[in-house]
């Protein structure tokens, strides 16, 4: 129902995206065609990397060239803890790439191509002007697909990830990691992160993709280029992975040697509160944890297990200190 309505309201805009009639009869410049800035990203991650068991040692996705010096914006999990990265343009030309930065809070990763690529830097737009029903284009290597904005809303991930204003589109594209989302004028408005079963978030939406809004990049870009990370204080990291399950937050796994592991928390237990406050929603949990202060702050969790309810205080830390990034940059 939702998908049918959105498709009808965006039909005219989609025609423009597909080249069946440009807005105002002004043809799109070649440089503004989404596929012109897309490259393939391949990363090799050592087997002993913290993320290798969950994300794999070989990762492949997309990246978007954003400047004439070969700076490439991608989704960070593709290159997290990688020791080698290759990028390839639409002609198949491959060059090595340097990992410039990784930012967990946004999910962005930055690369620098080690040689010339046949790619045109994308112009940056703004996700803030994208609204439900508007047409867009999703682009990845070998894929240029029309999309419709279904929603702009918050997104919380079990890996201690929170976006307050993510973009959700339909229909889904399969090779979403690092894909570009472009507006009707060919400007980059988001970077692909996930495929989701419900883009609306209430159980009524069609399947689609979640994109990280490009608006999160400019405020941290100078830091990423200079230091490889944002210089704002790191948020508290707990080293656990809660999954919403029948109205509760069940812990699916814990990070070896992380704060939760050291505190004796094990998979299968349930987070029922933060201090005295009952907690049942993932986004609420991450907001409340962040409100306590930066990494290093004590985080009081109330945990339910077969033995009953117990209070556990976790000494949070900076997630980057747990990752094995020394081989990366």
Produce a short descriptive summary.
Helix content is 14%, strand content 38%. It has 7 helices and 18 strands. It folds into 3 domains: 119 residues, Beta Barrel (Thrombin, subunit H); 94 residues, Beta Barrel (Thrombin, subunit H); 83 residues, Pdz3 Domain.
Characterize the structure shown:
With 329 residues, the chain is mainly β. The protein folds into three domains: 119 residues, Beta Barrel (Thrombin, subunit H); 94 residues, Thrombin, subunit H, CATH 2.40.10; 83 residues, Roll (Pdz3 Domain), CATH 2.30.42. It is built from seven helices and 18 strands. A hairpin with a 2-residue loop joins β15 and β16. The relative contact order is 0.14.
Percent of residues in helices? 10-25%
Order of helices and strands: HHEHEEEEEEEEEEEHEEHEEHEEH
**In CATH's first tier, which class of the largest domain applies?**
Mainly Beta
Q: Which architecture of the largest domain would the CATH scheme give at its second level?
A: Beta Barrel
Q: Proportion of β residues?
A: 35-45%
SS field, number of helical segments: 7
Globally, the shape reads: globular
